[in-house]
Amino acid sequence: MKHGQISSKELSDFIRERATIEEVYSRSMTKLAKTASNCSQLGTFAPVWDVFKQSTEKLAACHMELVRKLQELIKEVQKYVEEQAKNHKKTKEEVASTLEAVQNIQSVSQALQKSKENYINKTLEQERMRKEGATQRDLDKAGLKVKKATETYKSYVEKYANAKTEFEQRMTETAQKFQGIEEEHVLRMQEIIHSYCQSVEETHIQIGEVQEEFVKNMENTSVESLIQKLAESKGTGKERPGNTAKSLTHGAKPRKRKTFAIPENSFYSSSDSEDEDEPRKFHVQIKPVQTNNGTHQHKATIDELKASIGNITLSPTPAVRDASHSIHSFMHRIMQLYNCHVFFFSSNSRLASNDLLSLDPFVPTSSSSSIPHLSVPPPNRPTTPLGTATIVPPPRPLSRPKLPAGKLTGISEAVRPFSPPKMSNSSPPPAAPLARAESSSSLSSNTSLSASNTPTVGTSRGPSPVTLASQDALPIAVAFTESVNAYFKGADPSKCIVKITGDMTLSFPSGIIKIFTSTPSPAVLSFKLSNTSRLEQIMPNQQLLHSDSSQSDTNTKDFWLNMPALTAYLRKSSEQNPAASYYNVDILKYQVCSNGIQSSPLNLVVYWKCTSSTTDLRVDYRYNPESMQSPAALTNVQVLVPVSGGVTNMQSLPNAIWNAEQSKSLWKLSDISDKSENEGSGSLRAKFELSDGPSVPATLAVQFFSEGSTLSGVDMELVGSGYRLSLNKKRFATGRYMADC
């Protein structure tokens, strides 16, 4: 039994050493993949490096998966070692009677041997005395001694027979018990070795599949395809350009131009790199004037606005923050071209007040008083220091006041071709991915903006509770932050476009870094993501997160962290900001399957009626609880509407704020939910008197956010021991949320 315990511990040490070797190999392969990504991206051979990088990363993931399986197997071996020790201790107590039987037969055997020798000696002495002719008295004494030795010898023979019977019975039972223990031990060891072999075999199969995929990719990478990819990436079009205007000056060097492609091919933007001293060339194209109710304005079509929301993809890595900024700038130029108004969050901005999309168009100026009959006074500018304001929505009035008849005429209440219906949940169709910036927020900050342009609300709980002496499960926090982008066109629900993206962030207390760095092999942090069937795309942080691609359950997905990489990241964060109590790590991004207007938490319809002297506006809205996993109130709801035509007076229900400098009207509403008036449905109405009409219907923008729920319903559950979830925050907010007539 002692050798069984030794062999179990030695097998555990062997598997642990194999896991260490596999982990080192996986990290080396990851470094090799980074080397491939750093190779030259110029020339026709550049796509091949992507094939190498992907294949090497998959190989590293295969070996890291084997590490995880071996670590689970080590836990099983250790558990068996503990059970084995308990069974051995119990067995020793059960065979204590056998030990007594052994000791008894040993003592009886020794006494029997001595009595036998005494009997023989006494008998020989009696025979010798007879031969020597001893006296009868001496012979009688010798006979008594022989008789006594014979009786003693006979008694010990009987005792030995009884002790032998008990000994054989006890030893037989004990030997059978020992054999059963050894048979069970060997069977358990065989099961462990079988699991070990199966894990290694599965890894080899995965490696073979990766290698086969690599070979196929290389076979499909022909000379023609490489040349074609280079032409597509460097080319500026498939058609020969037409005649251009002649150069204003001669002898100028050619211009280097970077083009930005858009779906309608309606225009391009260039970035010049020639010297400032060189003469510039201009290509001017004058388009015919388009009329719209007596004004010459360009109006964005629905396809162009769809392009602004639908043709952007998720950013794969944190390195795309600059690219995301370029996309935002580019989309802003598109909207300016078509006279549309689009507002973007900045991931590094701070909200000093609650103005729409962190804009503050209401700086008090003398121009605000140019409307003599303005019924709503301008708002006071907040005096709270930047980044410390508390978001408090205005209280909702008990009842809405009614304007006298004739004040808001022009938009008939009877004509309502569309009232946002209550949709039932159905299977959403695939949707195009949407771009978003990288997260830089903190779970404990109440003023920063997260990766998906949503406010991160929470409070810090003080210094980290984790110390080096901690023996309990280590606390971590998780936050799910989602951004909903929507575009509503008229009263047709089929023209509504909705895109929802999200990200998952883990927060670690600073004290956990010391535990990670002082432990040779900290417990692997594993978790299960639920409701993943609602997600169209999942993009994990490949430097920190691993997953099993062979999982069959479409509604859940298992992940585990690369603990050495996580430790290195947290250590670096601690060096950069040693005073922080918590450190946040962006774990993954995802895109939610959307089903048009059914996925929108707040449905909108806007109506315009424009004449030369007045403009009537009505915005219908309806709260849609079916879009959320757990219906939650929409807070800080704000609606911003640009109105052209020289507004001289505004009347509105409910009261709105007019900014004369920017020609925009702003409604700030209280919370909207299914418990609100009319179950969250309502209308915003306004009448504008104009001096230079008619107005041109513009695109309105909406902002709101919600705490305690997400649109996707995605959730996280820790798997295994060593960690506990101390906080789980969920929220969503608007990204680009627009409506047009």
UniProtKB/TrEMBL annotation:
The protein, known as: FCH and mu domain containing endocytic adaptor 2
Annotated organism of origin: Cyprinus carpio (Common carp)
Gene Ontology biological-process entries: clathrin coat assembly; clathrin-dependent endocytosis; synaptic vesicle endocytosis
Subcellular localization, as worded in the UniProt entry: Membrane, Clathrin-coated pit
Membrane-topology descriptor: Peripheral membrane protein
GO cellular component: clathrin-coated pit; clathrin-coated vesicle; plasma membrane; presynapse
Ranges of residues in domain F-BAR: 1-226
Annotated InterPro entries: AH/BAR_dom_sf (IPR027267), AP2_Mu_C_sf (IPR036168), F_BAR_dom (IPR031160), FCH_dom (IPR001060), GMIP/FCHO2-like_FCH (IPR054713), MHD (IPR028565), Muniscin_C (IPR018808)
Residues spanning the signal sequence: none
Cited PROSITE patterns: F_BAR, MHD
Compositionally biased spans, kind Low complexity: 433-456
